[in-house]
Specification:
Number of helices: 6
Shape: elongated
Structural class: alpha+beta
Number of domains: 3
Number of strands: 15
Distance between the termini: 115 Å
Largest sheet: 9 strands, antiparallel
Strand content: 35-45%
Helix content: 10-25%
Oligomer: single chain
Length: 306
């Protein structure tokens, strides 16, 4: 009866093992050797062996953990790094076949710092600056109470601050040019909308030149200075293609020897006939039209022969 109860108990243990696969082998193996201990002992002594043999430890001993998973993850990590590095090098060599591993770390910054190609068809480019450094032709200056100019490489702009009642400018003199174009991307600061940004054409001296303007309200106008006296040739005119203060405008002025062509954001604004002669100096300027100082920034200026 005792043996029967033990067998029934082992059967129950075996059923529990079959229903819970996480306990496989351990419980089932133990049950197979515990069916009748007295019969087993009699058989062993009949052939000259001890009644009981030493058994395995009660608990299963696992081999020490060798850290294979950690090593495998490090291998995957190193493989990913290698693939990324090779990909960057392939891209860098596509941009510049002379790129080496030493240059790989700075290729992104070096490419980003290159000035964009001029967006105009030019036979000769006399000047082009995106103001990434302070080593260009335009430099910082200040006239107390009137105007100040600053090159800001971190922002990539040439900034002109102008006091009320003043026109501030920077000019370019190009010799022996039958046709000349000046192109600028400029923004009137949103906080100082009483301003106008302009291009200067046919500059003879400080009292004689043409001024082509776009103001903070998104209007264009043309003023001619003769002997220091301004004459309005074209009154301020609103145009949907022009942006107000806070947004950038592209201003373009072409002097073909007989006509001054003024464009805003690619749209032709006005053509002014002039006396036939070689192109005169050109420039960029800002005008404070109200009672406060104004700020205008240029992020690109180019002077070229088409």
């Amino acid at each position: 009866m005792a043996a029967s109860n033990a067998t029934q108990s082992n059967a129950t243990q075996s059923n529990a093992t079959q229903n819970n696969v996480t306990q496989r082998n351990v419980t089932q193996s133990a049950g197979a050797y515990q069916t009748d201990a007295e019969v087993q002992a009699s058989k062993r002594t009949s052939i000259g062996l001890s009644a009981h043999r030493p058994t395995a430890p009660d608990t299963v001993q696992r081999p020490p953990y060798a850290g294979v998973r950690l090593s495998a993850w490090w291998l995957v990590f190193c493989l990913v790094i290698l693939i990324v590095a090779v990909g960057l090098l392939v891209t860098a060599r596509a941009l510049d076949p002379t790129t080496t591993w030493d240059e790989l770390a700075v290729i992104v910054g070096r490419v980003a710092d290159q000035p964009p190609a001029a967006s105009y068809p030019a036979s000769v480019v006399h000047f082009h600056d995106t103001f990434k450094t302070e080593q260009g032709a335009l430099r910082s200056f200040a006239v107390p109470g009137q105007a100040a100019a600053t090159v800001l490489p971190d922002e990539g702009v040439y900034r002109l601050d102008t006091w009320p009642g003043y026109l501030a400018w920077s000019r370019f003199t190009i010799d022996d040019a039958a046709r000349l174009v000046i192109d600028a991307h400029a923004t009137i600061e949103a906080g100082t909308p009483d301003a106008a940004v302009g291009l200067i054409g046919r500059f003879a001296d400080n009292a004689n030149f043409y001024l082509f303007l776009i103001d903070g309200q998104g209007r264009f106008s043309v003023v001619r200075y003769q002997a220091g006296i301004p004459t309005e040739i074209r009154a301020p005119t609103a145009l949907a293609a022009l942006n107000p203060a806070g947004a950038s405008n592209q201003l373009t002025l072409e002097d073909d020897g007989t006509t001054l062509h003024f464009l805003g954001n690619g749209a032709r604004l006005v053509d002014i006939p002039v006396a036939a002669m070689a192109a005169h100096p050109v420039g960029v300027g800002t005008l404070a039209t109200g009672g406060q100082s104004v700020v205008v920034t240029f992020d690109e200026i180019g002077v070229y022969e088409p």
